[in-house]
Amino acid sequence: MPLTRAAAPVTLDAVELRVLQIPLVSPFTTSFGTETVREVIVVTAETPDGRGWGEVVTQSEPSYSSEYTQGAWDVLTRFLAPTLLRRRTLAPEDVSGILDGVVGHRMAKAGLELAVIDAALRAEGRGFAQYLGAENDRVPSGVSVGIQRDPRALVDAVGRYLDEGYVRIKIKIKPGRDVDDTAAVRAAFGGIPLQVDANSAYTLQDAELLAELDRFDLLLIEQPLQEDDLVDHATLAKRLSTPVCLDESIVSDKAAADALALGSAAILNIKAGRVGGYLEAVAIHDRAVAAGIPVWCGGMLETGIGRAANAALAALPGFTLPGDISASARFYDRDIVTEPAVLEDGHVRVPTGAGLGVEVDAAALEAFTVRRERITR
Ligand code: SMG
Ligand code: MG
Hints:
binds magnesium ion, 2 domains, 35% helix, 22% strand, alpha/beta
């Protein structure tokens, strides 16, 4: 599905980068560890016609991915932003090609590309969802629930999210906190749409244990093995009746092609940051649709900037499973946009205004900024 229409080129005068530290409403624990503050980079693309916004979804430590915030800051300030600025005039669709000389650093590239796309679309008065080829005006909202103190606390947390209206629950698992946690949620809430995310915490040696999850009729198990374990995931997939979904492993459209060819995944989690940008994410969506593979939109605890962009992406027709697109309030008391995403009947609305369709709250942005640099030509 090609983009509805390429965006007009923009003249890039400057790129402003900020590191933000935003407190979470409650700690978020995965197999990697616990986060209490979201540290994220916000990108502003400055053009003569106005500004565009992007978000680099790295975390402060390289545990989910090899990328991390200070590393992204370094590559953005020294290589990526200067390379883009040297071009002066560029179309959003050219950004990834221009940055091709830098290997990896996909989250950093994705944030920069999003800022350029947003600037271009705001100048045209066109919405991001329309640009990507979205077909829905709202998307079903799933919630990712971190590992809690014990299964009873997990049941309490899940119950609160179900009461709020979330239509799908994902629980984080790790060795020692898998079968019992899942059993407790199934016992408490019956046949709710439920899936688990291991964040790479297991090896193929754990296949027998992971097969115990088959009895819970889960929508999927997300990323049980390591990022580069494509062959092991294919082997595991044959052992399980629970569909295997890949997250960390799908770092590009090429990786998605390889995973599908090998039978490593029956379902894909698509995150624009992880794959180098929203345009690459659309390519993966298109590939999955052609292959009959369901996809859903993952989350990286985005601020209102990335959350708006994710809602637009998830409104493409191949996103047939609910994504990790929760209300902003699931993570934040105060967001950096003036109208943070809210839950309405288990759904999040897809913004329709120009560009990302959200306005940055300058005071909130300022309040959370801990580092800032403006890079000019
Ligand atoms: O944004 O709702 C969200 C978070 C969803 O669980 C979530 N993300 O592996 O899918 C994932 C994690 C990655 C971030 S925490 C390590
Ligand atoms: Mg995941």
